[in-house]
Amino acid sequence: MEDIRVRIAPSPSGNLHIGTARTALFNYLYAKKTGGKFVLRIEDTDLERSNAEYTQNIFDSLKALGLQWDEGPDVGGEFGPYYQSERFDIYPKYAQILVDKGYAYECFCTPEELEAEKEEAMKNHKAYVYSRKCMNLSEEEKAALRAKGIKPSIRFKVEHKELIFNDLVKGELKFDTNLIGDFVIMKSNGTPTYNFAVVIDDMMMKISHIIRGEDHISNTPKQILIYEALGAEVPKFGHLGMILAPDRSKLSKRHGATAVSDFVKQGYLTDALINFVALLGWSPSDGVEIKTVEEIAKDFRIHDVSSSNSIFEYDKLNWMNGQYIKKMDISKLTEMTVPFLAKYDLNNMSRENLEKMIEITREPITTLNQLEYDCAYFFGQDVDYTEGLETLKKEEASLVLNRLLELMNGWDFNSDEHIHDKLADFRAEFKEKHNMKPKETMWIVRAAITGRTRGADMAKTMTILGKDVCTHRVKQALEV
Ligand code: GLU
User: Fold this and answer.
1) Each residue of 76-104: pLDDT tens digit?
2) pLDDT tens digits for 366-383?
3) Could you count the other beta carbons within 10 Å of the beta carbon of residue 295?
4) Distance CA 338, CA 333 (A)
5) What is the whole-number distance in angstroms between the Cα of residue 9 and the centre of ligand 1?
6) Which of 11, 16, 20, 50 for a ligand 1 pocket mutation test, highest count of atoms within 8 Å of Cβ?
7) Residue ranges per structural domain of the chain
8) Which residue among 3, 43, 249, 444 is buried most deeply as judged by most CB within 10 Å?
9) Is the peptide bond before 221 cis (omega within 30 degrees of 0)?
10) According to CATH, what is the number of the domain 1-73+241-319?
């Protein structure tokens, strides 16, 4: 069996995009499923747009998502370097091989000349392809142009034919190479173009399967032609449908977060994120959507991946994130919530109470950033009564709260069960004596102690706050 080697080749011109994360995941899944290797290559040839912070963000985000690579810039491997910028000396050699074999030629056309060709084509309503003006220059002509200081680019000579390949996702695809035109593989400044560098790297890194977004489909024929010209084995290609926003436009910042690290900042768990993106184009055979990456890998078949575009439903992601928040190990979850509670002084709260607070507030939330508001009443002496004001204005309120003050003094705030039972007795008393519905009594208690109309379990909230704070707040509530 052939050695399966897949790769993800992001350009560090931004933080890791959620779409790239999905491409990385599908490659990772394919490697896991087949016992292959998952390679990370950083395509930082565009030195102006690339920066080290983005590279670090790509590493961190992939790792946080659990997509550890087998070979790559930091871990090394047999086929490095894995930074494209460290491979600059490799490409001219291969370009020269293509020139020597007659598959490529030097082009001395200036940007102005090329622009004029394009304009001409536009005027005639023709799709532009290069005129091949430089294809048959003699050695003397080339020498003369060089003497004028013109540095040539190198163009690949596109043979006219129908190019057919079998896409792993999309099935058979056909291209008329007449429409491609001779394309540049080495720029006049000596750097390779994307289509050339990617082929040389994939070839040298022995990549067997290229799984990537369908926005690259138009590049694939060019890349196949280069493999063929070099006499190299052409890898198998699989092009994934795009991820679109709910309004079917390209997913962009105006729809919400798009970078993995921004999702994390908003309180999405990476386990939920990666589970969610797996479902963009793939569905589990047993219909159970909540799954770990390892579980997905067992069930994954590249041929089952949908060839159509997927809609990025933020609502569904929120739901899924909520599911992960509910079932996550409480100690781990508590750790993760700390940055979202930066507004509060956590030093005044014991670790035990902190975990308890998260345990009783996590149920309704879908993203961790909601905790800042939902936990506000656990901190400080006073609370904001805006939300609970209506409830506190009810005429029974002072009756309830005065009685609560009286009784609470004898309650044991070290025991959840004790407070729970006492609150039950309290409700029963008001039902019996004043015919108040238990929940109405509790609304008043909640409004007084938390300022809210809804929130976490009342008994546990009270034990976290302690007797002094509860007493203080009930007194305050009586005043408002
Ligand atoms: N650097 C390219 C990108 O980020 C890689 C494309 C490919 O997978 O070939 O789009």
Assistant:
1) 999 999 999 999 999 999 999 999 999 99
2) 999 999 999 999 999 999
3) 15
4) 9
5) 5
6) 11
7) 1-73+241-319, 91-240, 328-371, 389-479
8) 444
9) no
10) 3.40.50.620
